[in-house]
Records
---
Amino acid sequence: MRNLITPGRLLFAIAMMAFGVQHLIFAVTSSSMGPPWTPENRLLAYLIGAGLIAASAALAAGWQMRCAAIVVGLVALVRVVICYAPKLAATPRDPGPWTSSFELLAMGGAGLVLAAAVGSGRPRSGRGGALLELGRFLFAISLLVFGIQHLMYGAFVATLIPRWVPGHLFWAYFVGVAFIGAALSIVSGKLAPLAATLLGTMFFLWVVMLHLPRAVAARHNANEWTSLLVALAMSGGSFVIAGAMAGRD
């Protein structure tokens, strides 16, 4: 499963680079951009877009990968603190900021795990070990929030499932339980590579079966494309965690 780091890194880099492109499109055209990356102003959009593209390109090319992964992870984490923490404090019952906050938290955590994983050897100690431990905790706590939201808002989640899939409500709750199970596995380290691999596969299937058809059908809807990229980043991040934790059970 250690080999999953490379495809996970590439999927994660593609998604984060696309987020950077979205920022630049917003900066030039002032067009809408879906959460969790909705820019506050055009100047920040330029800066964040250029930073994400540069760091993601380095990740994809295999150049200064540790530094690039830390940059990508910190961009996501800083946005949580600056943009979403105040919203959570002001409107704690609104599910929207919770979803956006923990999507960014998960991507930030995946970036830190990737930074640990692309270092020399297995990331068991030192700075690499600290990055892995912090990153997987952030990723897991995000999964826990997603799981609870699926259980709380199952009826809404069911409306997002394609019509041709039977048992919409069942799958909404099933995914919620799967999120919680994966979170517990990644935190405890028990069967974590298997759980993260299955999680990454599930997210990738969502990209192909759910998000891509919706984005193609609504080509000018930024929310749909952003949702697709979030799922792609989560898939890549899951595979990175699976590879990074291989052999640690």
---
Amino acid sequence: MLGGIAALWLGARAQVRPSGTAVGRVTVPLAGLPTALDGLAIQVVADLHVRSHRSPGLRALDELAGLQPDFLFACGDLVDDADATPLVARALAAIEPRYGAYAVWGNHDLMAPPKVTDPGWIGVRAQPLNFMREAFQAHGITLLDNARVEHQINGEVLAIAGVGDATERRDDAKQALCGADDDVFTLVLTHNPDATPRLGASRVDLVVCGHTHGGQIVPVFMPPVTTSTRLLLRRPAGLVHVDGRLVFITRGIGTVGIPLRINAPAEAPVLTLVRVGG
């Protein structure tokens, strides 16, 4: 019995380590993708849960340095301690995206676990968002807090909207997509896939998010222990459809609670958008 427990522990620990599993490529077929945007590459990072310079999530980012994708989407839960924000911002900037780096808040970015020095009655701590936002901006990373931007790429307009975290009820799709044009290809990044059903009638071609950790602990032949979402997802990560919209959910890099991953390896995928059909 002890041997079985030891094997389970070692196997889970192996899947926590980012080496060999943190970087992967996912092809996303999109019928509405303009020809000028065919092949667009988006580096997705989520759920780092960095507390200090020793955090595994921060070390995982080192593997992504210099990849130079077209865009970087940081989909929340980047820090569990605001003091680590400059470290994360510097590591994200080192990825060197060509057109832009964008981030959204996750529930842990907004409300962090208590520090060991905090009084016992403190359950969670409100994070200093202005300090965190300035740290990201100083490294060229734009926080899209229910906001939208546009890029001109190869003569084609691309819209990117960031929707706030649904866990803390900070998602405001109406504000994020204000001024949206139904003729413009639109990407949405958010933290929790629960924001997807509330996106309204505006054009959204792809939603990119994290939060589920891919279940983090997925027993063999059983569903995940938890995905922390209200949605009935067919799978805890990857490409899924939610209310008729295509959604990519990354398993992310870090962990919450037990520092283990079982059958849900850490990832920081590059999404390649590919035009299909007419």
---
Amino acid sequence: MPISTRLFNDQAITRFNRITSDIQQTQDKVATGKKVLKASDDPVAAANISFVRDQKVMLDRFATNIDRAQTRLTLTENVVAESVNLLTRAYELGIQAKNDTLTAVDRRAISFEISQIRESMMSLANSKDVNGNYLFAGYRTNVQPFVSNEAGEVTFAGDRGVHSVQISDSLRANTGLDGADVFMRVDIDGTTKPFFDVLTSMERELQGGAINNETVAELNACIDHFAVNQTRVGAELNKLDYQKSAMERRVLLMDENLSGLEDADLANLVSELQTMIVSRDAAQRSFVQIGQQSLFDYIR
């Protein structure tokens, strides 16, 4: 009769199943390069890994906000910079028109270029972003913010809202400027005035063959006003650049921390796997040999 008993067989099968499971788990770790495949492998490490990954998801969202804000602010900066260039040209024309050697006909000719500058400024004021939304309409992004009537009067149809996005746990950044503040509220000698009115006055004066010193001075104030707003946009872009660099450094540290928590030592795993396979094979051979023995083999 065989020496093996049912209990011996059951214990051996249980042991083989456990060894096989351990081998399979080790093979999975080798295949994935990760030492923590499920929370039960290392509950503390698994909790830390989950936390770091959640933080990275949040940082990815902030990075997306920064990219969108940079795109919109860059468009805004281009509009304001081009406005400064156009107004500078208008100011140069105003200085030129003051020259006593110019005739009334010459000044009327200059008025045509001022009219073109005014039209270009209207187009800039109604610029859109990459999504087709107006840059200077506030929260009413689908409404054309600046409208001119036949008399040359410009009205603002947007609102005073300024879009902003979250770029860190505690920091927000504006993605544009208040359109009404930029184009309709130029500070001239303590009072606010739409800069379109300055260009309209200048055009009409030149069409009449003259130019007032006050109008040229107001135009210079408009240039200063837009230059200040250009600086404001630049400051927001600088804030985004700084935050983006800080966040990239933070992500790098998180990646290093995550690697330390979950990356496996492949050399050790392979060595451990080979040891398990050898042990399993030896145990299987022993089981077969013992199972084939009888009482007579034991008596001998």
---
Amino acid sequence: MTKNYLIVGNWKMHTDIGEAEDLVTGLAGAIDPDGVEVVICPPVVFLEQCSLLVQEKAANKMSVGTQNISWEKEGAITGDIGINMVKDWARYVIVGHSERRKYFAETNNQIAQKLRLVIGARLTPVLCVGEKRFMTGDVAEVGKEMMEGIKEMSPEAMKKLVIAYEPVWAIGTGQAASPEYANKVIGELRSWLKDEYSFDVAERVRFLYGGSVDGKNALSYLKQEQIDGLLIGTASTKIRVFSKIIKDAGKLSKKE
């Protein structure tokens, strides 16, 4: 079966407005993502500008996502970002990234609330889950994060969900999980969804791998049966690297 890969670039707290515009323009000229869905997630202060630029220069080549939203729809939460503030500019929302869990002490309950807001706004959530200890092979920690995040989600809502398996020990460390290990963990997570929901739901959920992905190892992950795409951090701010990953994914899609 042919895969339509999903490649998500999380720019994190990188780029100024000029660099963000250059990235969008450069990617628009460098990619022709046949068989690949491309999403860029700039810093939220550049979200509107990047969205307008994508519409102008790359409407058929990429979509825009946001890196985070609040667990509350609105209210007296200084500095936070409500779903209504981004829904006109983003199609995707990253939820529960390990850096949010670590530095901002986000809980599984808050993450579950965020997922409900994203689904309610008819956007696509990218739920991040991952274990802290190095390649333990124990999926229980990851599975607990996933199941507590998706609690009360309907089968129809689940089919719109993207889950990014990002082992915490691999994020930004240069120490990526082996493709076989990532494939095994994602396969087990998919089995959890089959038990909780159904085979159809489990197969419709798209699973990404993230954690020290670069132009050298990206293809090895995409070749794995259970992996439907990638969530890429800092490497996605480098046009040559990110465009190479997208092109490699497109070539692989055509072969399958």
